[in-house]
TrEMBL record:
Family statement drawn from the similarity comment of this UniProt entry: Belongs to the UPF0337 (CsbD) family.
Ranges of Basic and acidic residues composition bias in the record: 1-11, 22-66
Region (Disordered): 1-66
Segments forming domain CsbD-like: 4-52
InterPro entries for this protein: CsbD, YjbJ_sf
SUPFAM superfamilies: Hypothetical protein YjbJ
Ranges that cross the membrane: none
Species: Streptomyces alkaliterrae
Pfam families referenced in this protein's UniProt entry, alphabetically: CsbD (PF05532)
Protein's UniProt name: CsbD family protein
Length: 66
């Protein structure tokens, strides 16, 4: 599965560029929103990965104590 956050950021940048070229303020705003959404998704995915790593680390420590 592709990184959805990165896809949203790219889509947002494209919309912003299209809005700038055509003078469409709404399209530019939509692009900014899409880009922000992509950044948020990316941060959530990073945090999810960190939590999984922490869980794995704690599980390994518990196994080592037994």
């Amino acid at each position: 599965m592709a990184d959805e956050g990165a896809m949203d950021k790219m889509k947002g940048k494209a919309k912003q560029a299209a809005g700038k070229l055509t003078g469409d303020e709404r399209k530019k705003s939509e692009g900014k929103a899409d880009e922000a959404k992509g950044k948020a998704k990316g941060m959530m995915e990073d945090n999810k990965d960190r939590i999984e790593g922490l869980k794995d680390s704690l599980s390994e420590k518990r196994r080592g104590k037994k």
